[in-house]
Design brief:
Number of helices: 10
Shape: globular
Helix content: 55-70%
Low-confidence stretches: 296-322
Strand content: 5-15%
């Protein structure tokens, strides 16, 4: 990793107890980066498999197409006072009460798959939580110091200074403190909303509970707010970093996405003379060659900072500048 990024999480002799604890937690994630990267890969495979099963089950659970494993409890033939919801998503009611939690195996599979997605998304959101809290505390302290005039953390604050007021080339610390505070706050809110999404998904675990009031609202509302918070933070951060790259391209690296977009355009126009995979691979190599020595670039929409070491030719995947 870029030395300036490493120095942002190294504790000086006068570090407070909070600062030493923060740095210890951040170093743990940096040192075990390979493990978490591998685990993320496993999660991605599980997510894709689960998504395919979810799509298959949704046809039977929601639309009643290709239903598997019908539940005999939903056979209300000959019963009185039977009412239906008007679609295949809900079991029938007898005397105003649902006859079962589910009417077919498709609905049970659909429910389990959605819960697996919630669990995976919660893991993805909570993994960088330590970094998000650290940058939020740091940015909010700088904003509070500006308006109150009180030096809250006894550290020099400003553009291009890390947690301890030391000059750094890490891109995150070159974003103005107001935007940093908003981004970090949104990122932390995204984690909180995602955890609430998981909590309510567990409380309302059954298929019927998750599809009816209040479960359907309490599960989906936090999920929606988490996505909105995450995307809003990514857009604000992406715009801020794009401005930094354009203002000082010799200092800050262009994002990988820029090179991949160029590769896609070259392949579509037939300028590369290669297949798509080879074209994108060459563009990635071009990015590493041109931008690797500058320390790293943030893929804001995914929340991942890819830091390339030109000497070691290896990549380090961390979260939002860590």
């Amino acid at each position: 990793m870029n030395a300036s990024v490493q120095s942002a999480i190294s504790s000086p002799d006068d570090a407070t107890r909070y600062e030493r604890t923060r740095d210890m937690i951040l170093r743990f994630f940096v040192r075990n980066n390979g493990f978490f990267t591998g685990l993320a890969g496993v999660m991605a495979v599980i997510f894709l498999i689960n998504l395919c099963v979810l799509i298959f089950a949704a046809f039977g659970a929601v639309f009643g197409v290709g239903v598997v494993g019908r539940n005999p409890a939903c056979d209300v033939t000959g019963l009185a006072n039977v009412t239906f919801a008007g679609n295949n998503q809900y079991p029938p009611k007898v005397n105003g009460h649902f006859v079962a939690d589910y009417c077919n195996l498709s609905q049970r599979i659909f429910n389990v798959c959605t819960k697996v997605i919630v669990i995976i998304l919660t893991y993805i959101n909570t993994l960088p939580f330590a970094w998000r809290v650290a940058i939020m505390v740091d940015a909010l302290a700088e904003v509070a110091e500006q308006y109150s005039g009180i030096d809250l953390d006894k550290r020099e604050a400003g553009i291009g200074l890390d947690f301890y007021g030391r000059p750094t080339e890490a891109m995150w610390f070159h974003i103005d403190k107001g935007r940093r505070a908003v981004i970090a706050l949104l990122l932390c809110l995204a984690v909180i909303f995602q955890v609430l999404n998981l909590v309510f998904a567990i409380i309302y675990w059954g298929y019927l509970k998750s599809q009816t009031w209040p479960g359907v609202f309490l599960i989906n509302a936090p999920a929606f707010l988490s996505i909105v918070s995450q995307v809003s933070a990514a857009l604000i951060q992406g715009a801020a970093e794009k401005a930094l790259v354009e203002a000082n391209p010799s200092k800050f690296p262009a994002p990988v996405a820029t090179y991949l977009q160029q590769g896609w355009s070259d392949w579509r126009a037939g300028r590369s003379g290669k297949n798509l995979w080879r074209t994108l691979k060459d563009k990635l190599a071009e990015h590493n060659e041109k931008e690797g020595s500058k320390g790293g670039s943030v893929l804001a929409l995914t929340g991942i900072d890819v830091t390339q070491s030109k000497a070691k030719r290896s990549s380090c995947f961390t979260f939002f500048g860590c």
